[in-house]
Give the backbone structure.
Amino acid sequence: EVSTEDPETAFSTLANREDLNPEEGSIYHCLYQFTRNEKLTETNKLLCDICTQRHCGPKKNIKSEKYIYTNAKKQMLISLVPPVLTLHLKRFQQAGFSLRKVSRHIKFPEVIDLAPFCTAKCKNVAEGNTKVLYSLYGVVEHSGTMRSGHYTAYAKMRSMNNHLSDLLVGGQSPQETEPVKGQWFHISDTHVQAVPVSKVLSSQAYLLFYERLL
């Protein structure tokens, strides 16, 4: 979808990205890199319909070799925040003609703020809010290689989040800012064991599941 917006606000976010200063190797750094402002130049220039029409007249009379391409900026931002946030980490990289698993630990918090990655006109965030908070409730971890391995999970047993229910059913914004309290468990096939949150946060996450707080 291409929209025409004021250039001064088109790349604005709910919270200042430059204040974030994310630590390399963290989920914040991953999100920062994924939503960074990119310059489209040379072979990546953007086809500009307006420039082409100004130069050549009505589009129906334009030949492909006369299309006008221009330098541009591109940025992917969140325009509608979800009740449940699922983050899928890319755990592989190309190594010649084969794929190799990335085993590096990525730091992730109990509570994450998406505001630096949301457009300033985010549709379902109350006006004036500069935080969009989520609480961690599940993690999937993979051990092994690209060819074989084992999936395990961490899940938080907690009381029902009424605010999340209101958000899912009626679209009302939740109001809490603290992590949802509960006990974490490690699940591997039929084996289930209670674990501290420190064990969860030190895991090699493959999938992260967060529920919205604010």
Observations:
- Residues 162-170 form the longest helix (9 residues).
- The two ends are 28 Å apart (CA to CA).
- Residues 78-212 form a domain with the Cathepsin B; Chain A fold (CATH 3.90.70.10).
